[in-house]
Amino acid sequence: MANGSQETNSRSRGNEFERRAERYLLEQGLRLLERNYQCKLGEIDLVMSQGPTLVFVEVRYRKNSLFGGAAASVTPAKQQRLRRAAHSYMQSKGLNESQQSCRFDLVACEGSHVHWIPNAF
């Protein structure tokens, strides 16, 4: 039972930090298009826009910066899954990758600090 409770707490904490990141990015002038886009290839925490640019946002939380911190937790394999999910999102919206500018941002939350890294990968 404890494992299920731990998983629920982790998911709840993840949602809390996604909302915090969303609020922060809205304050920076980005516009929310979608939360938690899911497809068989992966999930994108936030899909936003900044002017004409489509912004795919990964939100990561770590209690502290031990073991590289939140930013270091986005491995090359995770980046590839995000790219595939972004491609799926664009196809589902009828967007052409050669005509639509897009980027991948990271919002790294460590403790109470929020660090936004535009064009992270």
From TrEMBL:
<protein>
    <recommendedName>
        <fullName>UPF0102 protein GCM10022421_24840</fullName>
    </recommendedName>
</protein>
<dbReference type="Pfam" id="PF02021">
    <property type="entry name" value="UPF0102"/>
</dbReference>
<dbReference type="InterPro" id="IPR003509">
    <property type="entry name" value="UPF0102_YraN-like"/>
</dbReference>
<dbReference type="InterPro" id="IPR011335">
    <property type="entry name" value="Restrct_endonuc-II-like"/>
</dbReference>
<comment type="similarity">
    <text>Belongs to the UPF0102 family.</text>
</comment>
<dbReference type="InterPro" id="IPR011856">
    <property type="entry name" value="tRNA_endonuc-like_dom_sf"/>
</dbReference>
